[in-house]
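Input C-alpha cells:
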C-alpha cells in the first residue's frame, strides 16, 4: 500500500465517494435541520465532503433509538461469545477496507499516509478485535461470604453511553471508546470532532454490515458547544467517555454534575517529560526525542514536549536532536516519504505560532525551526521547532502547545529531574533514558504519570491501560481495565436456607 505515488493516490481520491451523513438507528441520515458543514483537507484547504451538522433534535432522536435498543436487549443481553463474533467480523471488515480508510484518515486529518496505513488503521482493527476476543473471557466474582449466603458481584453495562472524541487521532480514539463500550453491551452515541468526522462515519457503516443491531451505535457529527453539551447534559444518557482538552474535560464534569451524574471518564491533555541521562544510548535517545515531539506534528496528547537532559551532555546531545529534527520537515501527507503533515487548521497553526513568539519573549533561545513552510500548498505547515534555555516556569514548559515545539531543560541530579518532571498540572506520559537500571527504574517510579517509558517513547499496545494522572484525566482506555469505565458493579445477595 505504501509503494504508490502521490499521483496514483490523487487518482484514487478523485474516485472516492465520501459519506458525510450521520449514522442513526442503523441507517445513514441527514441532520433533521438539513444543515451541513464542509469537511476540509488540512493539507490543501480544499473541501472533502459535506457533513451533516447535527443538532439537539438529532441527539434526542439518537438517544431514543439507543435506549430502545438497550431495553430490547438484542445486544445488551446477547451472550458475550456472540457479541465477540460481531466485533471480530467488524474488525475484519475494517481490515478489508484498510486502504480506503487509511486514505480517508490521511485526507481528513492531514496525517501522513504512512502513519494512517501503518499505525491508525491497524490500531483500530486490533482494538476492536482484541476487545471482542476478550469479552467472553472475563469472569464476574463470588464474594468470600459465610456458608449461609451466596453473593454474586457482576459487571453490567451502563446503558446508553456517549463518546466524544478529538481530531488528532480520530480513528484510534473512536476505536478505543467504541470497542470496550460495545463489547460490554452498551448502546453508544459517538460525537466525532467537527474537523474529522469521516472515518467514524465509515466504520459505523461497516459495524452494521458486521451485524451490529440497529440503534446500538449512532454517529452524530456536529458542534461540541451545542450538540456535545446537549449529549453531556442529557438525562437519558448513563455514561460519558471523552478524549480531548483539559478545559473541555472540566466542563464535562460540570455537565455531569448538573444533569444526572452520568459516569464520566476523561482522557485529557499532557506536557510530558522525556528525561535523558548521560549514560544512555544517546543516539537512540536523540532520534526518539524527535519522534516523541514531532510525530503527528506534535498534535499528540502524549507528545514528549519537555526534553529534560543531563547538563553535562547538553551541547553534544542537542546537536543530535537538531540533526534528528531536520528529518521532520513537513510534506504532503499523500507522499509515503512524509513524516509530518500540516496543522489541523489555521487556528491550531496560529496557536503554535503564538507559542513560538511567547517562548522568544520569555527568553528561551530558538535553536531550530520556528516558522511556517509550504505556504503555497493551501495548508498550514509548521517547521519542527526546538527551544533551549527553557525553565520550567515558562509558559512553553507548562502549557500544552499541541504543535511541533520542543522545550529543552537541563538537570544535574536525578532528584532534580524528577522534580522538574512532576512540576506540571498534567500527568499523562513520559520517559526516562539511562543504561543504569537502578536510576531508570527509580526515576520511572517517581514520575507521576499514567504511562512511563524506559529507554523508549510511545511504548505500549492494546494489552496495557492508557490514561492520565492529575489533570490529564481519570479514565483508562485500552486493555481489560477499559471495561470498568463502561460497566456498573452489581451485587446480588442470596441468603440460603
Ligand atoms: P477539544 O477541543 O477538547 O474537543 C474534543 C471534543 O469535544 C470534540 O469532539 C469537540 O467538538 C468536543 N467539545 C468541545 N466543546 C465541547 C463542549 N462544551 N461540550 C461537549 N463537547 C465539546 O479537543 P481537541 O482540540 O479536539 O483535541 C486536542 C486535545 O485532546 C488535546 O488537549 C489533547 O491532549 C487531547 N487528547 C488527549 C488524549 C488522551 O488520551 N489523553 C488523546 C488525544 C487527544 P468540536 O470538534 O465540535 O469542537
Amino acid at each position: 500500500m505504501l509503494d504508490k505515488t502521490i499521483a496514483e493516490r490523487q487518482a484514487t481520491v478523485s474516485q472516492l465517494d465520501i459519506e458525510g451523513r450521520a449514522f442513526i438507528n442503523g441507517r445513514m441520515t441527514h441532520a433533521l435541520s438539513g444543515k451541513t458543514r464542509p469537511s476540509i483537507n488540512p493539507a490543501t484547504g480544499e473541501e472533502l465532503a459535506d457533513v451533516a451538522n447535527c443538532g439537539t433534535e438529532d441527539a434526542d432522536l439518537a438517544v431514543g433509538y439507543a435506549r430502545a435498543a438497550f431495553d430490547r436487549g438484542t445486544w445488551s443481553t446477547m451472550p458475550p461469545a456472540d457479541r465477540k463474533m460481531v466485533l471480530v467480523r467488524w474488525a475484519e471488515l475494517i481490515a478489508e477496507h484498510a486502504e480506503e480508510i487509511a486514505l480517508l484518515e490521511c485526507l481528513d486529518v492531514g496525517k501522513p499516509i504512512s502513519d494512517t496505513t501503518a499505525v491508525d488503521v491497524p490500531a483500530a482493527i486490533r482494538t476492536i478485535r482484541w476487545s471482542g476476543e476478550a469479552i467472553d473471557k472475563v469472569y464476574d466474582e463470588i464474594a468470600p461470604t459465610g456458608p449461609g449466603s451466596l453473593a454474586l458481584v457482576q459487571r453490567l453495562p451502563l446503558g446508553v453511553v456517549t463518546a466524544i472524541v478529538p481530531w488528532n487521532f480520530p480513528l484510534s480514539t473512536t476505536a478505543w471508546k467504541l470497542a470496550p463500550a460495545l463489547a460490554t453491551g452498551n448502546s453508544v452515541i459517538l460525537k466525532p470532532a467537527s474537523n474529522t468526522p469521516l472515518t467514524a462515519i465509515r466504520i459505523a457503516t461497516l459495524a452494521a454490515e458486521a451485524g451490529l443491531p440497529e440503534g446500538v451505535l449512532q454517529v452524530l457529527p456536529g458542534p461540541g458547544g451545542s450538540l456535545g453539551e446537549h449529549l453531556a447534559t442529557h438525562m437519558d444518557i448513563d455514561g460519558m467517555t471523552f478524549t480531548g482538552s483539559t478545559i473541555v474535560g472540566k466542563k464535562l464534569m460540570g455537565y455531569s454534575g448538573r444533569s444526572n451524574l452520568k459516569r464520566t471518564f476523561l482522557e485529557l491533555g499532557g506536557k510530558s517529560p522525556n528525561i535523558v541521562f548521560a549514560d544512555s544510548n544517546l543516539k537512540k535517545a536523540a532520534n526518539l526525542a524527535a519522534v516523541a515531539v514531532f510525530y503527528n506534528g506534535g498534535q499528540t496528547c502524549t507528545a514528549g514536549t519537555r526534553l529534560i537532559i543531563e547538563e553535562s551532555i547538553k551541547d553534544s546531545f542537542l546537536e543530535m536532536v537538531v540533526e534528528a529534527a531536520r528529518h521532520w520537515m513537513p510534506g504532503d501527507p499523500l507522499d509515503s516519504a512524509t513524516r509530518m503533515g500540516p496543522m489541523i487548521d489555521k487556528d491550531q497553526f496560529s496557536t503554535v505560532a503564538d507559542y513560538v513568539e511567547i517562548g522568544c519573549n520569555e527568553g528561551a533561545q530558538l535553536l531550530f525551526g520556528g516558522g511556517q513552510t509550504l505556504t503555497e500548498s493551501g495548508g498550514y505547515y509548521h517547521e519542527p521547532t526546538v527551544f533551549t534555555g527553557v525553565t520550567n516556569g515558562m509558559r512553553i514548559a507548562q502549557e500544552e502547545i499541541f504543535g511541533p515545539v520542543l522545550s529543552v531543560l537541563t538537570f544535574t541530579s536525578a532528584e532534580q529531574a524528577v522534580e522538574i518532571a512532576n512540576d506540571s498540572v498534567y500527568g499523562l506520559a513520559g520517559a526516562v533514558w539511562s543504561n543504569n537500571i537502578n536510576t531508570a527504574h527509580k526515576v520511572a517510579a517517581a514520575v507521576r504519570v499514567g504511562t512511563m517509558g524506559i529507554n523508549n517513547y510511545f511504548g505500549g499496545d492494546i494489552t496495557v491501560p492508557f490514561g492520565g494522572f492529575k489533570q490529564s484525566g481519570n479514565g483508562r482506555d485500552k486493555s481489560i481495565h477499559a471495561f470498568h469505565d463502561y460497566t456498573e458493579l452489581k451485587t446480588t445477595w442470596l441468603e440460603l436456607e
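The longest strand covers residues 149-157. Residues 164-169, 173, 191, 193-195, 223-225, 228-229, 232, 243-245, 248, 251, 267-270, 301, 400, 402, 428, 468, 472-473 surround NAP (CB under 6 Å).
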